[in-house]
Design a protein that fits this description.
It contains five helices and two strands. 61% of the residues lie in helices and 3% in strands. By secondary structure, the chain is mainly α. It has a two-stranded antiparallel ribbon with strand order 1-2. InterPro entries: ING_fam, ING_N_histone-binding, Zinc_finger_PHD-type_CS, Znf_FYVE_PHD, Znf_PHD, Znf_PHD-finger, Znf_RING/FYVE/PHD. One of its GO terms (biological process) is chromatin organization. This is Chromatin modification-related protein. Component of an histone acetyltransferase complex.
Length: 234
């Protein structure tokens, strides 16, 4: 039987959980307001990305025309010289760099915005004397038996391994990749491996009898031996 905790300890835990719940509700409310700021920042980043791509494409085109004028040592069909295209390439390159700087500034603001919200949650937890580890430890009873590969208590849908020597026994569906109760026998991953490498005792005995018959009566066909009429109920 599990030891009973005192009223003081139970009240302390309940108060802690209630405070944690209240802090979480307040924090979720602030996230709803945060979402509009997040969307605005992401939208601005997307817009700047599009502008950078356009400016980069124009800059590349100006560079190509500049090198074409250099190679031909004359102006292009529009009468523009290599120096003109060089100045234009530099102009659009600077504009693209400016957009990149704006993207970095928005990303920094975005990061600081999220950091402030995380810090606010930490401050609220500390102000209410809430320790996350203590809340998580009280999620399950300390002496509750654990199962499965995850070593957690019983919850949700579970399945039992049919191997008689399975050390774990029961498994949560999601931990072993199940979405419904398996039909027929089911073996956990460990026992499935054991089943694959473990010799079948009946097959081993039959194989031993066949070997004895062949070596004891080398001239007699194996089919002459009544192996199918053995006194054992296979």
């Amino acid at each position: 039987m599990e030891p009973e905790s005192s009223d003081f300890e139970q009240g302390h835990v309940l108060n802690g959980l209630k405070s944690a719940s209240e802090v979480l509700d307040d924090y979720l409310d602030s996230i709803y307001n945060l979402s509009s700021e997040v969307v605005a920042n992401l939208e601005e980043l997307r817009h700047l990305d599009e502008q950078c791509e356009k400016l980069s494409a124009i800059c590349k085109e100006c560079q190509e025309k500049y090198f074409a004028c250099i190679d031909s040592d004359q102006k292009d069909e529009d009468g523009k010289s290599s120096s003109y295209w060089k100045n234009m390439a530099e102009k659009y390159f600077e504009e693209a760099l400016q957009k990149q700087d704006e993207k970095i500034a928005i990303a920094d603001n975005f990061y600081n915005l999220l950091t402030r919200h995380f810090e606010r949650l930490d401050e609220e937890l500390a102000r209410n004397n809430i320790h996350i580890d203590e809340v998580l430890e009280n999620e399950f009873e300390p002496h509750e038996p654990v199962y499965c590969v995850c070593k957690r208590p019983e919850f949700g849908h579970m399945v039992q391994c049919d191997h008689p020597k399975c050390e774990t026994g029961w498994y949560h569906w999601e931990c072993v990749g199940l979405s419904q109760q398996p039909s027929g026998q089911w073996f956990c991953p460990d026992c499935e491996f054991i089943q694959a490498v473990e010799p079948n005792p009946i097959e081993s005995i039959m194989h031993a009898i066949e070997n004895f018959a062949m070596y004891s009566y080398p001239g007699q066909p194996i089919d002459d031996f009544p192996l199918n009429n053995t006194p054992f109920n296979w």
